[in-house]
Design brief:
Layout (H helix, E strand, L loop, with lengths): L1 E5 L3 H14 L5 E4 L10 E4 L4 H14 L2 H13 L4 H14 L11 H23 L3 E2 L5 E5 L10 H7 L5 E5 L4 E5 L4 E4 L22 H15 L7 H7 L17
Parallel strand pairs: 1-2, 1-3, 5-6
Antiparallel strand pairs: 4-5, 6-7, 7-8
C-alpha cells in the first residue's frame, strides 16, 4: 500500500500527482503531513512541493479540460472534507486516461461528486459575499471576520477588490487563521500570530474600532428594523436564505445598541 503526504498546499497536491505518475506507484491514500495514519503494511512517502512539477500537471489538465472544469478541481481542494485528495486524484487519473472529454461523464463517481462539490462551494461563496459585514478600526481599516464551512476565502478576492476598491480592508477567516488584505493597490493573503477577534462570536475588541463604529451599527440596525415588515414575516424562508450559523457575523442580528 502506498501513502503519500504533502504540505497541504494545492501545489503540493499537484506535486504528489506528478510523483505518482513519474514512479508509477498509484496511491491508496493521500494526506496532509501530520494527519496520516498508515497501517503496518503501508509505506509512507512525503512529497516536497515542487512548483515546476505542479505547473506541468496543471498545464496538462488545462489542455484537456475547460476552464470551469479546472476551477471545479480547485474548488474540490478548497472543500477540505476527508478524502478530497484521493477524489481529485481519481478525477485526474480519469482525465489523463481518456481520449475524450470526461467533464460530463456523470456515470463516473468522481465526476459526479466533484460537480456536486462545486455547487456547494458556489453557495458558500455567494453567502459570504452577501453576509460579510465590515467594521471600521481606528486606523481606517475595514475589518470583517468569517468562519465558512469551506475554505472559500481565495474565491472572494475578485468580488471584494472590485466592490471596495476605494478602501483598505481585511477579511479574516477565524477558523483557518488567515486573511485576505487589500491595501488600496494589491490583495494579499496574511497570517496573524493572534487573531484580534473572539473565536466563538466573531466580535472584534472594542478598543480597536473607530469611535463612530457603534453609531454606524445602530443606524444599520435601525434601518433593518424599519424595512422589516412583521406582517410578511416568513421564518422558514428567512432561515433558508440566512442560516443561523452566519448570524454571529451579522450586525443586524446582534443585540440592539442603545
Amino acid at each position: 500500500m502506498h501513502y503519500y503526504t504533502y504540505d497541504g498546499s494545492f501545489e503540493g497536491l499537484l506535486s504528489v500527482i506528478f510523483e505518482v505518475y513519474e514512479h508509477k506507484a498509484w496511491p491508496d491514500k493521500i494526506d496532509k503531513q501530520g494527519q496520516e495514519q498508515p497501517g503496518i503494511f503501508a509505506s509512507s512517502h512525503h512529497v516536497l512541493t515542487d512548483e515546476a512539477k505542479a505547473a506541468r500537471v496543471w498545464n496538462g489538465l488545462q489542455k484537456k479540460l475547460s476552464e470551469s472544469a479546472c476551477t471545479d478541481l480547485y474548488k474540490t481542494y478548497l472543500w477540505e472534507q476527508p478524502g478530497f485528495e484521493m477524489l481529485i486524484f481519481r478525477y485526474v487519473e480519469l482525465v489523463f486516461a481518456s481520449k475524450t472529454n470526461i467533464e460530463e461523464n456523470f456515470a463516473e463517481d468522481c465526476v459526479r461528486h466533484i460537480s456536486q462539490i462545486s455547487k456547494q462551494i458556489f453557495r458558500e461563496k455567494h453567502r459570504m459575499e452577501a453576509f460579510i459585514r465590515f467594521q471600521k478600526t481606528e486606523d481606517g481599516l475595514f475589518y470583517a471576520t468569517i468562519s465558512p464551512d469551506f475554505n472559500v476565502l481565495p474565491l472572494l478576492k475578485t468580488h471584494f477588490q472590485k466592490r471596495y476598491a476605494d478602501q483598505a480592508w481585511l477579511i479574516y477567516d477565524v477558523k483557518r487563521r488567515y486573511g485576505l488584505h487589500y491595501d488600496l493597490e494589491n490583495v494579499s493573503f496574511i497570517c496573524l500570530e493572534e487573531a484580534t477577534v473572539h473565536a466563538k462570536t466573531g466580535a472584534s475588541p472594542a478598543n480597536i474600532l473607530s469611535e463612530k463604529e457603534p453609531l454606524y451599527e445602530m443606524l444599520w440596525q435601525t434601518y433593518f428594523d424599519h424595512v422589516n415588515i412583521p406582517e410578511r414575516k416568513n421564518k422558514k424562508l428567512h432561515l433558508r436564505h440566512m442560516p443561523v450559523r452566519y448570524w454571529k457575523y451579522l450586525t443586524e442580528k446582534q443585540a440592539r445598541l442603545q
